[in-house]
Amino acid sequence: MKTQHPTYNRGYVLFIALIAAMGGLMFGYDLGVITGVVPFISEQFSLTGLYKGFVVAVFELGCMAGALGSSKYADQLGRKKTLIITAFFLIITALGVAFAPTAEWLAFWRFLQGVCVGAASVLSPMYIAEVSPSAERGKYVSMNQLTIIVGVLSSTIVCWYYGEVLDMDETIAWRWMLGSALLPAVLFFFALFFIPETPRWLVGASRPEEAERVIARIGGSRESQKAELREIEESLTETKTEQGTYRNLFSPAVLPALLVGMGLAFFQQFCGVNNVTPYMQDIFMSANMELGEGLLNAVFVNIVFFFTTVLSLFLVDRVGRKRLMLIGLGVMTLLLLALVWAFSAEQVNGMVVLVLITAYIGTFGFTLGPVVWVLLSEIFPNYIRAKALSVSSFVLWLSCFIVVLISPLLLEASSAVNFIFFAFFTLLGFCFCFFFLPETKGKSLEEIESLWVKNTSKRNKNN
Questions:
Q1: I want to staple 228 with a disulfide (CB 3.0 to 4.6 A). Which of 3, 264, 413, 426 is the partner?
Q2: Is the separation of the CB atoms in 281 and 291 below 8 Å?
Q3: What is the pLDDT of residues 425-440, one digit of tens each?
Q4: Residues 191, 192, 193, 199, CA torsion sign
Q5: How far apart are the C-alpha atoms of 317 and 169, rounded to whole Å?
Q6: Residue 459 to residue 234: CA distance in whole angstroms
Q7: Residue 397 contacts by C-beta under 8 Å, 6 or more apart in sequence?
Q8: How many Å separate Cα 286 from the centre of its chain?
Q9: pLDDT tens for residues 301-322?
């Protein structure tokens, strides 16, 4: 039975979702700030080639560890407490990167910062999905992607301010850029004390009375509240013999969802977005732009990124997840091929490159960016969601690490080679989603769980 929330408390859901989505803000801020930092640390620490890629990509290594390790604590301590611990260490690491004396120390602190961001990348969308009414879950989970872009945009503006407007000493400017993450980390930490634990975790922890209170606070008719609590209890009762171990991920009922989740994670990164964002200044300079001009253009690109992500809030529950994924992958493939053409010209036109990069990032903003996180937060069964989401996020961050690591080598080879490489994988992603991705729009988390079970039963009968 599909749970409805005809009169749910939108203000309260928005409030707690926004606080949880501050994990996305930190995700975007710590990921995006490196765009402005790279030219300065490359000069100060003489970073080139693969070593430069490693110092930048070590952040993604940390994200992999954080994504994989967070599920254990999310299941044992709860989503809320684990988020609070994560936010505390985001404060510590913001100070660490700002005062790093060498490239090695910077890499060390960026790794630890990545651990925190990787954990937040799992916890924030999972929390939001578990407290959101099913009819508008896509919109609320997409807010996490919106705050990621707010973080990216904010960090880009900060980088432009310290790197161009203030015209600071180059050995100091990048420290202020990295250290500016301290303020949002502190705000995130204290705000988390004002949100409840998720009802699905509370039921799993044998605390149904607390779960009922949270559901009542979220709202809806009395009948819908009772139906939702019963639906959660039935879902967890059916799997009570399963303890949500990593071995369960390979069971026939879970493996198809896991493979789809891992595929989505892989293709979200191998569309090349984190080839463009960290090395945007390198791309702009190869298109004959000055560093100051490139820093300002990065602000413009990320403003477009922000508004297209806002657009996703209105589309994801109307157009549907699968259709948006196909639109995004199709259009981005064409734009990447257009960038190959632009950089193959004898004289590269910087304005053409700026327009194509902006369109490419903008398309990602209302399609793959938010939609992949919506899908990863909702396609897995309740009892195994934390572990399945952490594994999929691990694949996402592993893919991101590889992309960030090899990007300097691809760009040094030629920008045309760089973009055709990612166009190939984006086209593969289109085919993957066309054939294997189900539509989840409008379905409750428990209905989606049943969908995988039904599909597995059909395959078994056919065999």
A1: 3
A2: yes
A3: 999 999 999 999 988 8
A4: positive
A5: 48
A6: 24
A7: 60, 61, 63, 64, 67, 114, 118, 121
A8: 28
A9: 889 988 998 898 889 888 999 9
